[in-house]
Amino acid sequence: MTTQHANPNALAVTATIFELFDRFGERTYSDGTSLAEHSKASAIAAKLRGFDRDMIIAAFLHDIGMLLPPGLPSKLGHEVLGADYLQELGFSKRVVEVVREHVNAKRYLCTMRMYFFDQLNEQQQRRLIEQGGPMPEREARLFEHHPYFDDLLRLRSLEVAQQANAAEFDGHWMAGLLHQHLSQ
What we know:
Elements: H1 10-24, H2 35-48, H3 53-61, H4 78-89, H5 93-112, H6 114-119, H7 122-130, H8 137-143, H9 149-161, H10 171-183
């Protein structure tokens, strides 16, 4: 378990996260799903699968880098932007690293478990190619030693099997999880 210092600004950080979703959450993926809807459905799916608090938070925030205002370094992927942002806000190393590596987890799965690639829709397959394509096997073998490898695969499993309804999302519940996480 990673030691984390209490964040005296936990309420303000939680409000900032929700403000980003309010301002930019209607941005859409190529399939027309809004970022907010996808993030909420991911959090609900994580909850339904019995994930712990940190993994529910990581599921909710994994694409937060797409919500950040334009003008940030464009060569960084949304996963790096999001992870760096969450680190600055005081999120745990586990949440930060799961957000940072979730794209690499997809690349890994497309190499090591071919059925994963086949389960991606056409837009997701195109996005994968933009993100570097399937991971070379040697890189994949090294990725298996990532300290949060199991968490990363669990998070990626939500995307393919995501059946949760974003309408079931309770903002007060998530705000409580975020505040509790940031207050430790």
